[in-house]
Amino acid sequence: MGGVGLSALSGMGLGLSLGAQTAGLRFRAENAHRLPRTATGWFLYHKSKNYHIMFGGIREGLRMGGKLGLLVGGFSTVEEAVDRLRGMRDFLSTVVAGLSIAGGFSLWNRFPAPTAARTARTGLVFGLVFGLAQDALSTAQGRRLGYGEFVLGRQSRTVTRMSPDDDGRSDSDRPEQRRAVATTPNGIMVTSREVEDEPHDDGVPTVENEARYDAELGGDGGSG
Predict the structure, then answer these.
(1) Nearest to 174 by CA among 201, 202, 190, 196
(2) Tens place of pLDDT per residue across the chain (224 aa)
(3) What is the per-residue DSSP string for the chain?
């Protein structure tokens, strides 16, 4: 409601200035053919002109202030309604509110099609700029925007895959494994898995199964 009051006061100030200027020019045009010729006449002329300027300014200020306050109030109401219907607050609701108010204003004043299109374009630009400004302010305050995460690809869908072994290390942290296939003198296929352990202090990886592999080959040969 603070925005509505501020807009009404702004409209009243603009209307007061515009109305006073218009009323002064109108009084001068209406009395151009009967200008006074004496000092008393000029005094009464300027006194009447000042009264017309004052009343014209007040009348136009009230009219413009009420109109601008009504438009801003309608804009805020439509924006809040769209926010509640969509379940989120972003610039799209502001754009819808701007287009709705522009369309209602055009219908109320019975604008022709070109003027209505120009008014709708103005409402679209205003809603887009004002909505993005609101989103930027909300982001600066720490509120996360749904469309921002979608565009930037920052959706929180992190899946951590851990190995079921006791050490609790993930697959990426495990040592590389290789398999070697050899044939014994008896024609038996032997498959051996070589596991490279993590580097020791000197940084050189070790292979733990060379002796076991040689023992398997020797055992198969001796049994033959």
Answers:
(1) 196
(2) 567 888 889 999 999 999 999 999 999 999 999 899 999 999 999 999 999 999 999 999 999 999 999 998 999 899 999 988 888 888 888 999 999 999 999 998 899 999 999 999 999 999 999 988 988 888 888 877 766 665 655 445 544 444 444 444 445 555 555 555 555 555 555 555 544 444 444 444 444 455 555 555 555 555 54
(3) -HHHHHHHHHHHHHHHHHHHHHHHHHHHHHTGGG---SHHHHHHHHHHHHHHHHHHHHHHHHHHHHHHHHHHHHHHHHHHHHHHHHTS-SHHHHHHHHHHHHHHHHHHHT--HHHHHHHHHHHHHHHHHHHHHHHHHHHHTTPPPHHHHHHHT--------B-SSTT--BGGGSPPEEEEEEE-TTS-EEEEEEEBPPP-TTS---BTTHHHHHHHHHHHHHH-
pTM score, whole prediction = 0.57
Query: How many CB atoms are located within 10 Å of the residue 7 CB?
Result: 20
Evaluated on CA atoms 89, 90, 92, 96, the torsion sign reads positive
- Sequence length of the chain is 224
How many CA atoms within 13 Å lie on the side-chain side of 16? 9
- Copy the structure tokens of residue 29: 């045009």
